[in-house]
Structure formats: C-alpha cells, structure tokens
Amino acid sequence: MDVKNKRVVVTGAASGIGKALCEAFHEADAQSIVAVDMNLDGAQETADSVNGIAVQANVGNEKDIINVIQKADEHAGGTDIFCSNAGIGGVPGFFEVEASDWQNIWDVNVQSHIFAAKHVLPQMIERGEGYLVNTSSAAGLLTQLGAAGYSVTKAAAVSFAEWVKITYGEKGIGVSCLCPQAVRTAMTAQGPGVAGVDGMMEPDVVAQEVLKCIAEEKFLVLPHTEVAEYVSRKGNDRDRWISGMQRLQKQYEDFLTPVDMK
C-alpha cells in the first residue's frame, strides 16, 4: 500500500515507536494522522508536530477504541491504516505475577489489537482496502526470558495478526506485524536486557522499516534482521532451540531472577 494521502491512526503515539511512526507517515505525505495515547499531553505534542489530532485512550478498553475510530471518522472520513502500536512490559517473572497483572497485560498487548480490528475492519472491507499494523515483539516469535506475561501476550499478538491476514487478506486487507528486539523507548530506559543482544535500535529506524513493509505488503516487520535467522532455527529444531535458550538464560540468571527467588 502506498501511504501517500492515506488516513492513519497510531496508538502509543506520545513517544517511542508510536511517535516515530506518526512522524514517518507525515514525511511520507499521509493525508491525516490521529495520535492516540493515555498521555494526552504527549499525544497532543506529537499531533501538533504532524498537523494531526490527538485522542486520549486506554487501548485495552473497547469503548476507548470505538471512540478513537469515531474521532478518526469525524476528522478524516475514515481510516486507511490503523497502527495498533501501544504495549506494556508488564510485571516480570512468573510466580510474583498476580491475576490482575495478567489481565492488564493481556488487555493492552492483545485485546487492543482485537478491539481495533473488530471496529475498523468493517469500513475497510466495505471499501475493499485497508491496512493494519500490529506491534508485537521479537519475543512474540521467540520468547522473553524472565517475563512470562510479556512472552505469552506478544506471541498471541503475532497469532492474531496472522489470523486476520489469512482471513481477510483476499478482501483487500493488508497486515504487518512489527517484531523488533530492543528499541530505545521508555520500556528500555533501564537498559535493553536480554533483548539487547543484537543492539539497541532507534525508533525512527524502526518506523522507516514499517513503512517499507507496508509498501511491500510484507507481514513480518523485522528491523533486527537477526530475528529471521533465529525464527528459522527455532522452526527447524525446536528442542535444540530451547536448549540454546536455556543456556542463554543461565548467562543472564542474576539479571532475570527476582531477589526473593534467589
């Protein structure tokens, strides 16, 4: 899909990848941009920089997503590209993660994509054209050492994006799933951890890769090219892959293990 003159919505737009996406779409001559975030001041700052509008939303709340789409309809007459980008790291570990923590990360990292697709796809299918960009993580293809909630929800996000592409791709719906490793955002402010094994990437570089994959209608967006090789190795021999990840976990054991579990 050519992003020129397209109407775009980006969640998690106050900073990081979301802000960089808004800027990249603006530079690529998108017709309109709706910057969405719980941080309304941050979203407004982004919107002002790209001549767009800001909408406050908790993406894990279905009513908020419905409102975002309605605001986009009012502003530009519809949505051509919806970037469901907002996500959280959640509570790390496993035994220390409460049921409420699981529900919170599930709502933000998975239900947000489901709500967006449920409520924006009908207008796209009716037009015979539309595009979803769902931000997951390399953890969704591989795993995230030391963080059960993040691993599970990011894998679910990949699976849902794939399902949408399989189900509606023949109806003119494009889908890309963004799966980076460490990116310089608020989530990695304390350091990249294990995800930084192949280096830290800047948000604007990631955003450019997203636009390239939209133009090519490529499903997986892998800014860290090493991830494709890891996925191939995992698929070819799952047991060997798991053994390798267990060895990696031992290298990061002190970093990964909560103090009260040592």
From TrEMBL:
Pfam family, any one: adh_short
Keywords: Oxidoreductase
MF terms (GO), sorted A to Z: oxidoreductase activity
Signal sequence range: none
Keyword Oxidoreductase: yes
Alphabetical list of InterPro entries matching this protein: NAD(P)-bd_dom_sf, SDR_fam
Cited PANTHER family: BLL7251 PROTEIN, RETINOL DEHYDROGENASE-RELATED
Assigned protein family: Belongs to the short-chain dehydrogenases/reductases (SDR) family.
Protein name per Swiss-Prot or TrEMBL: Oxidoreductase, short chain dehydrogenase/reductase family protein
Organism: SAR86 cluster bacterium SAR86E
